[in-house]
Amino acid sequence: MEFLTDNIFHNTGFNYTLHSYVSQHNHELKKLGDNEKKTNKITTPVKDTIKEFAGKFKSSQELTDYVNKKHNLATSYNQIYYHQSRIYAEVYGQANKDCNLLIKTIEDEIQNGICKSNYLVNSENQLTHFIYSSLEMEQIYHHFNDVLIIDTTFKKNRFNMPLINFVSIDNYGFSRIVAFGLTHNEKQDTFEWVLRSFYDIMNHKYAKIVFTDEDDGLINGNDSKF
Q: 132 near 197, Cβ under 8 Å?
């Protein structure tokens, strides 16, 4: 759209009045590309896809990419994550209720001598770290602690919290889980807390050999404290 500037705007103090304009473009209109033609509207079929595949991808970003490709959309990560969280709430109930139930269960089992555990809650009363080992798991570790395997599974749960597993190898060569937990992130100070809690649970009986992946936070956390 081209505005005519000659004798069109008349100064009336601080205001300007438009008297006329030419309703024609003086340049070629831009054509919309494929991405610009896409919508970000979440329709019922899209919700069905999110519900079907929620929790089956490594991350919510992978789910977002899959949904966009399947339905030719341009939805954002936050949109998909929001609907995924709503689906989890509908199927499993509110996430905070799960956390409250987990903490209550841990405290009851500790009081009854069923397990050893530790957890950390922040100033907003949100669960940030937790580690758990049953008495049977503890006994297995005390018998088979020559080799300890530590690994994390990247946020494949409704809380988007990494799951950390502690695994020993028994006398038959089988893998035996001796502790597990959830963490808020995979930083060095987080792993220091997890490892310190693990060895507290195991009465400071340290493994002779520790295997893990190339996670710098876990490696540095183990080297700095243990």
A: no
